[in-house]
Amino acid sequence: MEMRVKAGKSYGAIAMDFDFAVSGERVGIFGESGSGKSTLVGMLAGLLQPDRGEITLDGESLFSSERRINIPPERRRIAVVFQQPTLFPHLSVESNLLYGFRRTLPEQRTIDFATLVDVLNLDGLLDRGVNNLSGGEKQRVSLGRAVLANPRLLLMDEPMSALDDNLKFQIIPYLKSVSERFGIPYFFISHSLVEMRLMADQVIVLSGGRNAALTTADQLARDRMGKSPVGYINLLKVTAPRRSEGLFAYRWGDQDLHISAGDDRAEALFELSSKDIILCKRHPEAISARNLIACTVANTFVSGNRIGVELACGDQLMVAEIVESAAEELGIRSGSELFAVIKAVAFRRLG
Amino acid sequence: MLTFTPADYEAIGLSVKVAITATILSLPLGFLLSYILTYGVFRGKLLLEVLINLPLTLPPVVIGYFLLILLGRHGWLGGMLEAAGIRIIFTWKAAVIASAVVGFPLLVRSMRIGMESIDRQLIHASRTLGAHWYDTLFTIILPLSTRGIIAGSSLMFARSLGEFGATIIVAGNIPGVTQTIPLAIYEYAASPGSETMALSLCIISVLLSLVVLIFHEVMGAKLVRRS
Fold this sequence. Notes:
The complex is a heterodimer. Chain A has helices at 37-45, 73-76, 93-101, 113-119, 135-148, 165-168, 172-180, 193-199, 217-225, 324-330; strands spanning 2-11, 14-23, 26-30, 52-57, 60-64, 69-70, 78-81, 153-157, 186-190, 202-207, 210-216, 233-244, 247-252, 255-259, 267-273, 278-280, 291-303, 306-313, 316-323, 337-342, 348-349. Chain A is α+β, with helices and mostly antiparallel strands. In chain A, the strands form four sheets. Chain A has a six-stranded mixed beta sheet with strand order 7-8-9-3-10-11, with helices on both faces. A five-stranded antiparallel beta sheet of chain A has the order 2-1-4-5-6, with helices on one face. Chain B is mainly α. In chain B, 78% of the residues lie in helices and 0% in strands. Chain B has helices at residues 6-39, 45-57, 60-71, 76-83, 92-116, 120-128, 133-144, 146-161, 165-170, 181-190, 195-226. Chain B is globular. The A-B interface holds A 45-47, 72-74, 76-80, 82, 84, 86, 88-90, 99-100, 103-104, 131, 145-146, 149 and B 119, 121-122, 124-132, 135, 139-140, 143-144, 226-227.
């Protein structure tokens, strides 16, 4: 998928102008409230007409003010998963799912109904009314409906924001299946850096109604680390929990992590702030923190007035954040050997 | 004890026939105008809105008089219809037109309220899933406007049953031809010794109104349960 946007729209004195070209399957659009995310989504989907400029998708002009082209939404084949799961309340789950499918030309139908139901785990919901579904189920149906329309691009407009934390990360594998299982490229729109890192390879950063940068989600998180109150969020995939001294011991690569907020599910995703990692030059004598990990400095970077230290812990990586004087005191440079000290309560479960 | 003459039965039948015809004929145009007023962005929208609502504020007699000018033998439309062999004035069709004009704003207002309550994202979702605007209109907006349509139709039907001022001007008060319940009651009220007959028709009016209101409530409750 290749998208080129050079288009703008004015709301009185406020002008929004976007100018970027991006190619790839998993593109993120990141921005705070008021940065223009919704305007951009509306323009791409054809729900909002730009005042000026041009939008092309895979070489086809979707909008051009100069050539007076404005392809209507139903002919763009750009489906949208909205923030709120906008299911048609008078239709059953099955009829909702088939709404777009029935309006797709037979030769464009590459995804079949049975596969979708299986991948999104919708079997058993098909005959139900949409008002009897949970928030997560609704969003899965909404996603399935968009995928079954066989779009050439899917816009996911903050699809997790209406879900509570627990459900939020359960839906991620389903969202990822759009690209991984069905081969549909997507734009993932969010103001959450964690979601960006889980869902997008490249990220267009919007600010004040303009695109400020094109970067990767991880680079964006590193750039913002020094200014962010939560620092850089390490995402740790852990497996094989077992109970140990009132905590859960998980396997993280080739070592153990002791975590208080665990459970018996075989796999889990935890977040750990770069601010919650203490670095020591030598092995502490005795310490209350339950995680003491030997690691090597792989890299360092500057973010605001903080130093980010990328640590290689066995075959895994994580980022710690320290002030400059601490970096000098520890004598940090690439290859330095250190111990990372992390309390068991510092990990927060994501999914 | 209720007492009815054959002309009263005709008046009751005609009232129901006029109200049903006026409501059914107004529904397509009412739905279209409600759609345009709810979702359309165009110059002159305010003027259109004012024109549609004008009969709500005008005395029915004034509406009847305008209709008489328009549909009369020498009227702009009436002349053309007359040439085509169609006569409207002083027929039951005139009563239908009078009822339709007077009740139309009530129909449009209710339908519009119903349409405005539809989440715009549903319409956007439908369009991005490949539905043309007319497809969205019939598969999303129409079914989700059902409550508004029922409310509007009930109101318009009830208003048509009670229509008097405009009807008497354009349709007259001809027993068996254009005399509806209100016109019959008016005639009885003006004739000494006809109180029982007038009261009987009044009771029929109340019963018809009750049936309409109960139908409206039952259908509304059914739709709420279904959703």
